[in-house]
Design brief:
Blueprint (H helix, E strand, L loop, with lengths): L6 E6 L5 H13 L3 E6 L9 H8 L17 H4 L6 E7 L1 H8 L6 H7 L5 E5 L3 H5 L1 H12 L3 E2 L3 E4 L5 E5 L3 H12 L8 E6 L4 E2 L5 E2 L6 H12 L3 E6 L11 E4 L3 H12 L4 E4 L6 E3 L19 E3 L3 H6 L6 E8 L3 H12 L3 E6 H4 L4 E2 L2 E4 L2 E4 L3 E2 H18 L1
Parallel strand pairs: 1-2, 1-3, 3-4, 4-5, 8-11, 8-13, 11-12, 13-16, 16-17
Antiparallel strand pairs: 6-7, 9-10, 14-15, 17-19, 18-21, 19-20
Helix pairs in contact: 1-2, 1-8, 4-7, 9-14
The structure holds cytidine-5'-monophosphate (C5P).
Amino acid sequence: MELQGKRIVLGVTGGIAAYKAAELLRLLSKQGADVQVAMTEGATHFVTPTTFQALSGKPVFTDQWDARMPNAMAHIDLSRQADLILVAPASADFLARTAHGLADDLLATMVLARDCPMLVAPAMNRQMWENPATQRNVAQLAADGVHILGPACGEQACGEVGAGRMLEPEEILEEVIAFFTPKLMAGKKVLITAGPTFEAIDPVRGITNLSSGRMGYALARAAQHAGATVTLVSGPVSFSAPQGVDRNNVRSALEMHAAVMARAGEADIFIGVAAVADYRVANAAEHKLKKDTGGIPPIELVENPDILAEVAALKDGPFCVGFAAESQNLEAYAQAKRKKKNIPLIAGNLIQDGFGGDDNTLILFDEAGAHPLKPAAKSVLAGQLIQHIAHLTGKN
Ligand code: C5P
């Protein structure tokens, strides 16, 4: 749970996208956040407070004069000790009132009385968004330190197409998690390989492995959250790149090698997570091999370049991190691999503990020895590995 213990006030204002705030609330709660919902009167015309009450397990406040607050201090009490006020959707009207410091309803008053950061996810018709008045208000809010999330471009509830769509709840969740992540890698360029490679035998067949790419993608996401500029060189995997990450698709080890070597010189940190095939087929057939052409076709293998070792050998190259997936003798094999490739850090895991799955058990091996991490989701382990890398690179 990446938002465990975080207290968030979720402000919901009037707009069609208010229905998506219910899903956002569910996602925030699932990550452990303690969420208090406050709605404008307009928002209650789109979704009822009961929905948010059921999802948050707390009373929802809409009225500044709510008699449930014994001291009539709802605007201060509700946001007191909040770590964040998140307003999604944020209507043009809400942005305008906030930019001008108005306090004419509960949410606006809470926002004015806050002593915590605020994120807003605007949602409105594209012409309302493009209107110079809205743009002025948004620029003012940004200058006042409010974080503006989106909006996205696309089809709108009114049938028009353009900028003004609220970011999707999953995207807003990512922004919130990123917001709370210490920026240990601010200004760093991180290059990561992920996934399997596919070594062609003929146009339809090949040699590959069961790497899902999850660990590499989780690291790309964690590095991005930690403030790095992240480039991912990915073998064939079935999911999309984390928000804001530059993804480059490759298939074979040779393609991955070329893509990495073209970018390694600029990187501060290189993390080789890909399960690169050790060998490729030397005599890959141009046309599909046929069964009935007599005999079993011979497959000749040649060794692939060791991408990680090559990057580690670069003069003034990046800080290099490797992965060692073993089925036995983890410590001995991982440390031997670290020394052979001449890299400062390697993350070892037993194949039976995590290859292809959502969770993993990692042990980090560096000059100082072994640092076991508790078994956890790959997203959590990725954050811990990024912290360890930041700690080691910070020392240099
Ligand atoms: O030598 P081995 O494949 O066990 O080492 C694993 C580590 O080396 C991983 O970090 C992997 O991404 C990297 N590697 C590589 N190029 C290869 C083979 C492995 O970058 N050809």
